[in-house]
């Protein structure tokens, strides 16, 4: 335990590890994210914590759509190419294997177990370094059936992005 009990407690919250893809015009990007949760049953919505300075933030703002690529633990290597931002890896999309999502055109990453296509319906600027983006789920696909216990998490990588 550290001297920062808030940080210690926040790091106890389990987080999935997802590849968020975005598309606007001729530009696409894929980034990793873990602050994601379902936010409504009807309509089906998810809430995504999105860093304001990320390249994807601009694409999601201008394109109004994004895809959540969900991976099984066994396919963790498929997400690794997206862990560095565009500023550190400007050519990160050059050799990526993906198909365009049918409704949004956002990348569906090869190896993803499932995906959720979302259109942005609301954004909340909390005054912090991340913005909350609410996406209505308008489409989905399952490539590899599984359960929540099979889904890749930050713990599986030995990483933490909390506190």
Structure commentary:
- This protein has a single domain (5-157), classed as Electron Transport, Fmn-binding Protein, Chain A (Pnp Oxidase, Chain A, Roll), CATH 2.30.110.10.
- It starts with a helix and ends in a 6-residue tail after the last helix.
- It has three helices and nine strands.
- The radius of gyration is 15 Å and the shape is globular.
- The chain has helices spanning 5-10, 55-63, 154-157; strands at 18-24, 27-33, 36-40, 45-51, 65-70, 98-100, 107-109, 114-125, 130-142.
- The mean pLDDT is 94.
What is the CATH class name? Mainly Beta
CATH H level, superfamily name: Electron Transport, Fmn-binding Protein, Chain A
Q: What number of structural domains do the residues give?
A: 1
What would you call the shape? globular
CATH topology: Pnp Oxidase, Chain A
Distance from N terminus to C terminus (CA atoms, Å) equals 13 Å
The assembly state of the depicted protein chains is single chain
What is the averaged pLDDT score? 94
Provide the β-strand percentage band. 35-45%
Largest sheet features = 7 strands, antiparallel
Structure at a glance:
The protein is mostly beta strands and 163 residues long. It has helices at 5-10, 55-63, 154-157; strands spanning 18-24, 27-33, 36-40, 45-51, 65-70, 98-100, 107-109, 114-125, 130-142. It has a single domain (5-157), classed as Electron Transport, Fmn-binding Protein, Chain A (Pnp Oxidase, Chain A), CATH 2.30.110.10.
